[in-house]
Write a structure and sequence with these properties.
Layout lengths: L6 E4 L5 H12 L3 E6 L5 H9 L3 E6 L5 H7 L2 H5 L5 E5 L7 H13 L1
Parallel strand pairs: 1-2, 1-4, 2-3
Length: about 110
């Protein structure tokens, strides 16, 4: 599946399923907006760049109105000349396997 010219926003992308999801979408050609509360999640952008992908890091807590607004700020995305597409939550700790299975099915459509 080709995600070229698509932008995917991944919350909780600093570790675990969020990190894996961000790397997976980048490998499929998506421009990835990497989000986390932690600054160390910016390293995921570096990993994506090292693999030839494109990513931007937005540090924000999406559990707050301010953080949500910061993440979805059009200027953040437009600064990279991207257009936002799907939002994939990366905080599904207890449902990781089911979530990954659902994601795989969606990507195969």
């Amino acid at each position: 599946m080709d995600f070229s010219s698509k932008v995917v926003v991944i919350t909780g992308a600093g570790a675990g399923i969020g990190r894996s999801t961000a790397l997976a979408f980048a490998a499929l050609g998506a421009c990835v907006v990497v989000n986390s509360r932690s600054k160390t999640a910016g390293q995921v952008c570096g990993e994506i760049a090292d693999q030839g992908g494109t990513a931007v890091f937005v540090q924000a807590d999406v559990a707050t109105a301010e953080g949500g607004a910061r993440l979805t700020c059009i200027e953040t995305v437009n600064a990279k000349h991207w257009w936002m597409r799907p939002l994939v939550p990366g905080y599904l700790k207890r449902q990781q396997k089911r979530y990954l299975d659902d994601l795989r099915r969606e990507l195969q459509k």
